[in-house]
Amino acid sequence: MAARSAISRRGRVVRRGREGGMTLLEVIVSVGILAIIGTLIYGAFDGMSRSRAGISRMSDRYHQGRAAIARISREIQSAFLSRHQPFDKNIVVRLTAFVGDDTSPADRLDFTAFAHRRLLRNTHESDQCEIGYFGSRDPDRDKLDLVRREAKIIDVEPTRGGVVNVLAEDIESFNVEFLDPITGEWTDTWDSTQPAAQFERLPAQVRVTLVLNGGPGGEPIRFETKVPIAMQVPIAFGVSN
């Protein structure tokens, strides 16, 4: 009896040991399940990260386009022409103008405006300046950017000089059209410096169309606005016609 009791107790101890542990197969199955769960969790977080990055990139593109259109509109509204010139044409040092060229894929617009912001105290600057918008090819990447040129001093070359900065990156096109207040028709070009064109005149409105690459689904993003110009007559205080 004592021997059978000892054997019975030993069997119960062995069974209890087996019940408290895990076999190699169970460990492999558990690790596989954990690996699958980890893979699913990583895929979910990776998808969320990609979606967030895509939404952020798209938001940046829309913000860049809206900011560019807003700035262009604000500065075109302040365009002006002036007839104040010395009687001796040989000593002319400044020329106001409004010149728009129809080029592909980006038009060019140069004009004088009351749009300069003086950032430093006691500088010999005013709010008058030369501004230009045109397309420029990025030398490092194969893409076209819309750039802004500003010269804080108006000289005799209203389409050259100044500092150039990128206004909108990777554009598809930049188109500018002008509403002639005399004919009531839209035209693709404007030149206030040529007697055969729109001599000493400003357009009634300017239609600006900016198309950016990299929109939803790879489609371009289109921005369009019409900008009225309040100052239709050149400044001529004390100048006889």
From TrEMBL:
This protein's GO CC annotations: type II protein secretion system complex
Gene Ontology annotations of biological process type: protein secretion by the type II secretion system
Residues that span the membrane, as ranges: 21-45
InterPro entries registered for this protein in UniProt: N_methyl_site, Pilin-like, T2SS_protein-GspJ
Sections of the chain in a coiled coil: none
Keywords of this entry: Membrane, Transmembrane, Transmembrane helix
Family: Belongs to the GSP J family.
UniProt-recorded name of the protein: Type II secretion system protein J
